[in-house]
Write a structure and sequence with these properties.
Layout: H1 11-25, H2 31-44, H3 47-59, H4 61-69, H5 71-77, E1 88-92, E2 97-102, H6 111-114, H7 119-122, H8 124-132, H9 134-140, E3 150-155, E4 161-165, H10 177-181, H11 186-190
Parallel strand pairs: 1-4, 2-3
Helix pairs in contact: 3-4, 4-5, 8-9
């Protein structure tokens, strides 16, 4: 009988597992605490939290108003708060303004709503270039911003984090809040992308 073949673990995954096993063996790491940490970042933090915030704002005008007035409190209403999200400002994209977020000094990022930052967000080229030539950088992500739309770049820091509220895609009036959340991408909440359109397959995010 033929046996199913699976891809061997990547070298980096093997190294991580070896280090993890060694730390547990020496009593330096509690396996239960490690499992809790992994669950926190994989299941309780991440872009889907931010997607729920965006979808609620798209469907609830009163919530949207609170979100733009006091991002920290409105996000906490949905249960998302904590380290790296103590002070949040939400930036609304419109027909006239497109917002994009960066951290020029390091990699300050709103963990409670977006999880851990992608590699490109922490890279020196992104941090430097998006301030100097934002339209060119956005184009490398596949996002062409019309000349008549102002691009505003916001610099996160240790005290303040930003979340972009992207525009709701057209033709989504019939979708539920949960269905709308599926259209919200991580990059659209950073400002380097747009939400998916209904029926558009999910793809890899990040610069092309």
């Amino acid at each position: 009988m033929a046996h199913a073949h699976t891809e061997p673990p990547a070298p980096v995954a093997l190294r991580v597992k070896a280090i993890e096993s060694l730390l547990v063996e020496k009593g330096l790491v509690d396996p239960a605490a490690l499992d809790e940490l992994v669950d926190l970042f994989e299941n309780r933090l991440g872009p889907r939290n931010g997607a729920r915030v965006v979808a609620r704002a798209w469907t609830d005008p009163a919530y949207r108003q609170r979100l733009l007035a006091d991002g920290t409190s409105a996000i906490a209403e949905l249960g998302f708060s904590g380290a790296q999200g103590e002070h949040m400002i939400v930036l609304e994209n419109t027909d006239r303004v497109h917002n994009v977020v960066v951290c020029t000094l390091c990699s300050c990022y709103p963990w409670p709503v977006l999880g851990l930052p992608p590699v490109w967000y922490k890279s020196a080229p992104y941090r430097a270039r998006v301030v100097m030539e934002p339209r060119a950088v956005l184009a490398e992500f596949g996002l062409e911003v019309p000349d008549e739309v102002e691009v505003r770049v916001w610099d996160s820091n240790a005290e303040l984090r930003y979340l972009v509220l992207p525009q709701r895609p057209p033709g989504t009036e019939h979708l539920s809040e949960a269905e709308l959340a599926e259209l919200v991408t991580r990059d659209s909440m950073i400002g380097t992308g747009q939400p998916r359109r209904p029926g558009q397959a999910a793809g890899a995010e990040g610069p092309a």
